[in-house]
Design a protein that fits this description.
The protein is α/β, with parallel strands linked by helices and 353 residues long. It folds into two domains: 188 residues, Quinone Oxidoreductase, Chain A, domain 1; 135 residues, Rossmann fold. A hairpin with a 2-residue loop joins strand 1 and strand 2. Helix 3 packs across helix 4 and helix 3 crosses helix 9. The longest helix has 14 residues. The protein is globular. 47% of the residues are buried. Bound molecules: zinc ion (ZN). Zinc ion binds next to loops.
């Protein structure tokens, strides 16, 4: 079958590889669509980061580069191991793309995203979404009912937003400020809006401001070039400040803006991945008793995220800004996201085309 494999920085190859084999406890899936993520771009330009470099196998998967890439994917079940009885061939699904130790409890309430050596399918081995087919453990397979398969490729990044929402402790009726309207900022805002919050977004890019407004995920978009965003948030909240802030830009000044923009006793959740240590306005954090919370991935967020999309309170269609074939992964996928980044939210790839 055809697959995109990561060899090293700037070296991704479309190749013919062996079909994955069904083993006890697993499910075979024909991939429909796979999204390209900012993490994939970091691996391509600056990696390997999550990807185990050649000669250094990952402790759980036992694999090293070259590995199949792609962790945001949807598909249809084409085979089930004899001991998997609660799914049907022909059912549409998404994969929660974790590589986690066999001995780690992944049941409700467990923080398995924090377990030792956690990695992701499509980065750390075990196949990936940029291949025609994949075999994954039953515990990571989530049925999606009648959600269209193209939109379902966005459920993985949407689950990141859902996990950030859960971590924030925010409730319907509260006010949120999201820093940055890139893919994760927009999808986090979409979850917050669907959960009944008032959502403000801080963003400079015209294309992203337009996307935030047109998709309806923001009640108001503030441009830091028009003035002090924290001041604008206070104006719109009767002087109080937002209840929760979400850092989705990995820009230090945005983090400080959020610490300023939330009310005393408020919560700031960091959703972005940082490549450097930012300065943090600790005096404000102390005097306002701000909770600054980290988040990574998701944990038992997929079922609620899928239900949110099924409820119709959230429309993923407008966030798909490109559709390409596997051969075009670098020429039309990565290249667009590197050079024309602000015009795109998600480019999705059809591994069969
Ligand atoms: Zn991702």
């Amino acid at each position: 079958m055809r697959a995109a494999r990561y060899y090293d920085r700037n070296d991704i190859r479309i190749e013919d590889i062996a079909e994955p084999e069904l083993k006890p406890g697993t499910v075979a899936i024909e991939v429909a669509w796979c999204g390209i993520c900012g993490t994939d771009l970091h691996e391509y330009l600056e990696g390997p980061i999550f990807i185990p470099p050649a000669g250094h196998p990952h402790p759980i998967s036992g694999e090293a580069a070259p590995v199949v890439i792609g962790h945001e994917f949807s598909g249809t079940i084409i085979g089930l191991a004899d001991d998997v009885n609660d799914l049907q061939v022909g059912e549409n699904v998404v994969v929660e793309p974790y590589i986690i130790g066999d001995d780690v409890d992944t049941g409700p309430g467990s923080d398995y995203q924090l377990s030792k050596d956690m990695n992701f399918i499509g980065l750390g081995g075990r196949g990936g979404g940029l291949a025609e087919r994949i075999v994954v453990e039953r515990r990571w397979v989530h049925p999606i009912g009648d959600i269209p398969l193209d939109q379902a490729a966005l459920i993985e990044p949407l689950s990141v937003g859902h996990h950030a929402f859960v971590r924030s402790g925010a409730t319907a009726g509260q006010t949120a400020i999201v820093g940055g309207a890139g893919p994760i900022g927009l999808l986090t805002a979409a979850v917050l809006k669907a959960e009944g919050l008032t959502v403000y977004i801080s963003e400079r890019s015209q294309a992203r401001k337009t996307m935030a407004t047109e998709t309806g995920v923001a009640d108001e978009v503030f441009d830091p070039r028009d003035g002090d965003v924290a001041e604008m948030v206070r104006e719109w909240t009767g002087g109080r400040g937002a209840d929760v802030g979400f850092e989705c830009s990995s820009v230090p000044v945005v983090l400080d803006t959020l610490i300023d923009a939330v009310r005393p006793g408020g919560v700031v959740v960091n959703v972005s991945i940082w490549g450097h240590n930012p300065p943090v306005d600790m005096p404000q954090l102390v005097l306002k008793e701000i909770d600054l919370r980290g988040t990574i991935g998701y944990a038992n967020d997929h079922p609620d995220t899928i239900a949110l999309v099924q409820s119709g309170r959230l429309d993923l269609a407008p966030f798909i800004t490109g559709r390409i074939a596997l051969d075009e992964l670098v020429s039309k996928g990565y290249d667009q996201l590197i050079n024309n980044n602000e015009e795109h939210v998600k480019i999705i790839v059809n591994p069969h085309a």
